[in-house]
């Protein structure tokens, strides 16, 4: 069962990574506007624009 | 007269040299709108950036301090085709938003914890302990503890804090047994692990928290959504006032920037936005939103005017007075305070269940402990069994039973145009047997409309409509909208009398009956429409008299009939005069009505009804209804209601139809029955699980399955609150 010695920490670390990603996404306001993101993805961002566009 | 807009009260300063403003924008619904607005604003020089939030229909704009004026940003948005309204986020909103964030964080942590603990538990249930020996099992238990203890310590705080608050106040809520159950489960599990026992309950405790947090987060989110919509509507409706500065300059400012002692100008056809005393000018005031009285009242210098009333005929200069000096507002405020004090302390269904439930559970656990000890089992294993009973009866399903239904029912109501202000309004709404309606603006539409359009020739109506467009008078607006007029005539307005124009060689007049010399024609119209206001038109050939009145909402009659069929008693309590109320009561077939009531009379009637054992829903919009709304068991306002009134109401409905009121009652009844069903489901679950636990057979697998199973069952049952038969479709 020595395999547990690194499998368990690996499982916890992966889970923790997911949790950290979730908390980061929350803190950076990615859940503030759930409707807008869907539209932004298809907008013409690649055209040269000014400011934040 | 120069007129500029002063919006400085809405401007924030997030950083040195940066100004920012939050705006509610109308008509944003897709990606094209987002990029039009963001690019259109960002390419203005000085603007640092603009960010659209599509979910809440708001825009945040940042600019270099002093480089552009806030009003030029509004103008720019207007020219892009998106009318925008500034708003200042209320402090309450940011507190609620912080609470929502915190619940979401706790939910994330609980989900992480539940995932990992279940991972380990499934291995144990699968037989890892048998095949690998007891050292492995203990190791797995310690791992579970390592994850579960910090998870619960972090994610359980919303429940622990609420429970501690309740206990400190000597009260009792559902969070007390929840906290107790979770804490005991963890303590027992740690002790069991220390003693190398085969069973631990870490998974049950964490799963329990996960389910409860999900329910609570959804509840919080729904209420925030409701509040967002309400804030947006308030911002769009937010009134501005024209402030007269020394030196005669007039400046349009938001109400928030007006102070006591300021002088404001109110032009004809504008709603008065402040309480004050008239200094100069002469006009007629429509007080229907304040008193329910539909007949206009003449005012002159020295008269009191109130916010929410409509200035109809002449320009007024009003000195802003302290809100508390108005006699009517004084009365309303005093009555309101009293009514709130006397508001029956309604005990929520969930709390009532918790009060019944906790003693039963604790007595059962105690009896189990004593029973096994007397049986001769020894106190340690007896205590373990007793605590297992506590854990397995932990009100997981009970804690979800009511909130889950509330969330689903409230979002169903939201879709039908009803927004709930308070969570327990659903339960109170389900219990009512009597509905009391205000008349003006509630049973009737808030805007006046043309009543005798069918009696008037189309050519007369069309001409009168074009002429009416030139006037700001509210009655004229009703004529214009009935005629569907689009192109105004270049008419001259005589304040207080009417408008006139030379059109194709003929003089046309629209105004008071006397101004148009239409007294003879007016007699018949006045007799046919006793509750209407009259406005006359002197056309090229003949004089016509229009009857303008506040017509009942389009679906009022079938909705009232449906409500009566549903077994509800219906009454009208109005501040308007007898003839006007009688007319509407007759039209809608409501036999019980009272007219000319003061706010205190309305309260007295509600009190009498309640003392007779009735549970009353009050539906009203006027300032004079605010105390009555607070005095009723539950209350609803239309969105057009006065601010103070809306704040008192348990729910607000949108639109011109009355159907949302009926839908709200039906949905609430359905929700209440589902809540009771859910509570019974939890009781049945306990009825099955508790004997198993008392007998000492409850393994962690059974506990986890039973708990999750009952939570899922209760949640699925709650989803049925989505659909309820509408009353008048």
Structure summary:
The complex is a heterodimer of chains A (53) and B (729). In chain A, 57% of the residues lie in helices and 0% in strands.
Protein architecture, described:
The complex is a heterodimer of chains A (53) and B (729). Chain A is elongated. With 53 residues, chain A is mostly helical. Chain A contains two helices and no strands. Chain B is α+β, with helices and mostly antiparallel strands and 729 residues long. Chain B is 52% helix and 17% strand. Chain B is built from 25 helices and 28 strands. In chain B, strands 1-8-7-9-15-10-13 form a seven-stranded mixed beta sheet, with no helix packed on it. In chain B, strands 16-28-27-26-17-24-25 form a seven-stranded mixed beta sheet, with helices on both faces. Chain B has a six-stranded antiparallel beta sheet with strand order 18-23-22-21-20-19, with helices on both faces. In chain B, helix 23 (643-648) links the parallel strand 27 (634-638) and strand 28. The longest helix of chain B has 36 residues, at 202-237. In chain B, 47% of the residues are buried. The interface between A and B is medium-sized, with 29 and 33 residues.
